[in-house]
Amino acid sequence: xxxxxxxxxxxxxxxxxxxxxxxxxxxxxxxxxxxxxxxxxxxxxxxxxxxxxxxxxxxxxxxxxxxxxxxxxxxxxxxxxxxxxxxxxxxxxxxxxxxxxxxxxxxxxxxxxxxxxxxxxxxxxxxxxxxxxxxxxxxxxxxxxxxxxxxxxxxxxxxxxxxxxxxxxxxxxxxxxxxx
Length: 180
What we know:
- The protein is α+β, with helices and mostly antiparallel strands.
- The chain has four helices and eight strands; from the N terminus they run ββββαββαββαα.
- It has a five-stranded antiparallel β-sheet. Strands 6-8-7 form a three-stranded antiparallel β-sheet, with no helix packed on it.
- A hairpin with a 7-residue loop joins strand 7 and strand 8.
């Protein structure tokens, strides 16, 4: 082989993107010493076998088109949420193919501090919005509870839905339809 090449490594192969091909390959050596690059579409678990449908390249022929990502033994699987906390140079997303999608990061990589801060701030903002929405829901539910306690007939108008009418609107619509 020519050039620097690593066995048991993950590479991007931009010329290998297509139908049933991710353009992400891992490398392996066979018993004769030949080095192969196997696309991850059908083999995202790196089985190191020649699977029936897998796209396999003789690595020496594509060496100059490969972009090193990381060694397989340095890759650890993480959740989708955690994946986005790392720099793209230390992370690899393998889309759905013959198996489920995978999110890999280099086990030696550190999380990007700015990404962690952004994620935490976003989560706080979403929680604050949720708290406001729940407070609004509770005000409406307390109104219903008060009215139903005073007039059991109004209980028939309650629908138990997330975006239900206010008590006042439910009574008005019921009166228009002649219900009460």
